[in-house]
TrEMBL record:
<dbReference type="InterPro" id="IPR033621">
    <property type="entry name" value="TIFA"/>
</dbReference>
<keyword id="KW-0391">Immunity</keyword>
<dbReference type="Pfam" id="PF00498">
    <property type="entry name" value="FHA"/>
</dbReference>
<keyword id="KW-0963">Cytoplasm</keyword>
<feature type="region of interest" description="Disordered">
    <location>
        <begin position="161"/>
        <end position="186"/>
    </location>
</feature>
<protein>
    <recommendedName>
        <fullName>TRAF-interacting protein with FHA domain-containing protein A</fullName>
    </recommendedName>
</protein>
<dbReference type="InterPro" id="IPR000253">
    <property type="entry name" value="FHA_dom"/>
</dbReference>
<dbReference type="InterPro" id="IPR008984">
    <property type="entry name" value="SMAD_FHA_dom_sf"/>
</dbReference>
<dbReference type="GO" id="GO:0045087">
    <property type="term" value="P:innate immune response"/>
</dbReference>
<dbReference type="GO" id="GO:0005737">
    <property type="term" value="C:cytoplasm"/>
</dbReference>
<keyword id="KW-0399">Innate immunity</keyword>
<feature type="compositionally biased region" description="Polar residues">
    <location>
        <begin position="166"/>
        <end position="176"/>
    </location>
</feature>
<feature type="domain" description="FHA">
    <location>
        <begin position="49"/>
        <end position="121"/>
    </location>
</feature>
<comment type="similarity">
    <text>Belongs to the TIFA family.</text>
</comment>
<dbReference type="GO" id="GO:0043123">
    <property type="term" value="P:positive regulation of canonical NF-kappaB signal transduction"/>
</dbReference>
Length: 186
């Protein structure tokens, strides 16, 4: 056998991509301690904490309005499944965390969607999970956004079209209240 045949199968690694945005990042540099554009290997049993306490949190946000521990992420495998997920937990008593329009109070937790937006205060974080197979570790890859994530991802919703297929904007009476007329009046 050749060394190629004896080599172990390369295992893919789950990677959590997190893109951060804050409107005053350039002035206040609240992300200055985050290491952007570098994949970081993390043990599967390690809980990732984000906040301003550098002794407790692995990822520091330098802002007095951020809680000592703002939120935590835990990597896990679903019961009776080979699927890996991340659980997000709000650790802030002061600020609710919004994950894809679901509001989490203190100590509330939910599964992080495969692609979702995390918001608190003026912070916007796009989280995207890239599937992998490794049970021993995962990777995290941080990015910095120059434009608001919500603005970039959310388009204004189009005006609904009624079932008859005729757009209400075609009628000049739009916006006026209906007038009730007795059937005997002309």
């Amino acid at each position: 056998m050749t060394s190629f045949e004896e080599a172990g199968t390369e295992e893919t690694v789950t990677c959590l991509h997190m893109t951060f945005y804050h409107p005053f990042q350039e002035d206040k540099m609240m992300f200055r301690y985050l290491d952007f554009c570098k994949r970081e290997k993390v043990r599967a049993d390690e809980m990732l904490k984000f906040g301003r306490d550098s002794n407790t949190c692995r990822y520091n946000l330098m802002d007095t309005r951020v809680s000592r521990i703002q939120f935590a992420l835990q990597f896990y495998r679903k019961m009776n499944s080979s699927e890996f997920c991340f659980e997000i937990k709000n650790m802030s008593k002061r600020t609710n965390l919004i994950v894809d329009q679901t509001e989490l109070g203190y100590l509330n937790k939910i599964d992080l969607p495969w692609k979702g937006i995390i918001c608190f205060g003026d912070y916007q974080i796009l989280a995207e999970i890239e599937e992998g197979e490794s049970v021993d570790y995962f990777e995290i890859y941080l990015h910095l956004a120059k434009v608001p994530i919500l603005q970039e991802r959310c388009l204004p919703s189009p005006q609904p079209i009624p079932e008859n297929g005729i757009s209400p904007s075609l009628f000049p009476s739009q916006g006026k209240s209906p007038i009730e007329i007795d059937e005997n009046e002309s």
